[in-house]
Amino acid sequence: MKMRINWFGLAAGIVVLVVLGVSLFVPWWQLTIGDKLLQVNASPVNTNFGLLNLNFTVPLLWAWNLVSVLIFAAAGVVMLFYSIFPTRSYSKELLSFSYKKPLYILISFIIGLIVVIFIAGAIGFNIPANGTSNIALPSQFIPTGLSISASVSAGFQLPFYLAIAAAVLCIVARLYHGRVVNVHQPAPVVANPTAPV
């Protein structure tokens, strides 16, 4: 019997694990204010901040990052296992568990980023999602007559685009599952015992 593999699922599992590995070292989105005066490196698996070249993280964000690492790792490994054995009785449950996770994490990250940019804008800091601009410290934070501004650059990094590719591959693997499972096999040839010899 020929082994059936969900190749889209296999690619998805590999890309999910690659995203996880790369995201531990490269952020999905990076914000730099001034000449590295303040730096924000954001990703679901490793969010940290830099102030005057000193890096630090927030304990709550570190806990969220740890949960995301575990979810990404589980999704990638389970997707790989499912892809190699897509016709087993438990395979559909494995697929259902794994294909949604990268998409949910990606959507959560985008929503979180939009909320942070919106809140920053509401208090007077116009931070670009992608590109460069100048921001001025709002007047309520500085003495009258002074103005303080700094250049800001922000942008999405390679792991963000890899995460989009991983989410798309996971969805395609789910859509392709039916074709892998329902491959029509030729009916076995049965000899007719009543035919004359």
Description:
- The chain has a domain at 7-27 and 64-139 and 157-180.
- α1 (7-23) packs antiparallel against α2 and α2 runs antiparallel to α3.
- Helix content is 50%, strand content 16%.
- It has 197 residues and is α+β, with helices and mostly antiparallel strands.
- The chain contains five helices and six strands; from the N terminus they run αββββαααββα.
Taking Cα atoms only, what radius of gyration do you get, to the nearest Å?
Answer: 25 Å
> Which overall shape is indicated by the principal axes computed on the Cα atoms?
elongated
The biggest sheet, with number of strands, parallel, antiparallel or mixed sense and barrel status, is: 6 strands, antiparallel
User: What is the helix content?
Assistant: 40-55%
Mean pLDDT: 83
Separation of the first and last Cα atoms: 31 Å
How much strand? 15-25%
Would you list the SSEs in sequence order as H and E?
HEEEEHHHEEH
Q: Going across the major beta sheet, what is the strand order?
A: 4-3-2-1-6-5
Low-confidence stretches: none
Protein structure class: alpha+beta
Q: Helix count, per DSSP?
A: 5
What is the number of strand segments? 6
Features:
197 residues, 50% helix
Annotate the secondary structure layout:
Layout: H1 7-23, E1 29-33, E2 38-42, E3 48-51, E4 54-56, H2 59-84, H3 91-99, H4 101-122, E5 131-136, E6 149-156, H5 158-181
Antiparallel strand pairs: 1-2, 1-6, 2-3, 3-4, 5-6
Helix pairs in contact: 1-2, 1-5, 2-3, 3-5, 4-5
